[in-house]
Amino acid sequence: MGGLVLNGYAAEWSAEPSLGVKGEYNSNLLLVAGPQKPVYGHWVSPGVKFAGSTENIEVSGKATADVVRYYGGRNQELLNLSFPLSVKYGLDRETFGFEGGFTRDNTLRGELLQTGVVLSFTQRNMWNLAPSWQHAFTERLSLQSSYQYSKATYEDGARLGLVDYQVQGGSTGLAYQPSENDRLMLLGTYTNFTVPTASALRSDIVGAQASWAHAFTERLAVTVTGGPQVVSSSISFGPTRLSDTQMLWVANGSLKQQWQSGFAEIVIGREINPSGFGLLLKTERAGVTLSEDLTDRLNASVNAQVLLASSVASKAVPFTFPENRYVVVSPRLTWKFDEWWSLTVAYTYNRREVESFGERAFGNATTVMLTYYPPKLSVGR
Question: CB–CB of 162/135 below 8 Å?
């Protein structure tokens, strides 16, 4: 890709704009049971990726938008926004970082893929802030601390049975690298989940987490993380406040094999997620991703995931959420037919099951997206 270089005082800064136009067909947009009318949609997606670095600081992020209109079985206009930002500032022994930003999407995109639960179809606004600090005692041993804050709000949530929530917490621990191919970490973690409603649901999660990352070769690596989590929940009913404590185990693992023209990755895990239902959800996940460059300009990939989700049982919360099974398979073909243009064709199969209700829903979606990449803009010494 070509670029335009300008003289300036920054060490190195760049911006990569893009503009995409997408058409969509979806047989069951809301993933509800029973016969459904198909939905058609068109997307216009401008965006820009940016990055910069000096001797001590690295900055990267992007700003993207989706102007979406659905018609057919459902007439609706949506505006999705995404502004992720990553900053790293390094000194001799100290490293300060920040990950976060703002996301506006709908509940059947980000939240569904995170929790495995289908919520009412509406837009969600999500703020995420995660500053961090790392102190290197030696080249192999370091102290790491981080703080996380997120806040979710839903449009027309009260009518749809969704509640706003916020999550905050932190972690502190040690990271040790006994060899070039191994990295060990031990963390203590705390998370607070709060629903600011009349019931004042509050959950505090205290836990420990150990992780091991190992590179068998330059192209084969494994990462395993897990530990116990003590969940304490309380909720108010008038003057009465009920509370309960239990312990859950969470874990995540990934195995990634790379080769010259692609990669394969397997992930499995169990995690605790907040949700718009005002409950903590236990989500178990298994997935696989395959990607292969068929030629210099043609890439084929497929992602498949199975998610099992249910509410974290608690005597303090008198209502529970039944186990949901969500399956998604999405093959994709991307053709970069010109230096500035690419064409992507994708198909997505969705399946949702709630065995206790005898409920099953299926959906098929096909998208075709044409993207234009203007010349990259660069500023440097």
Answer: no
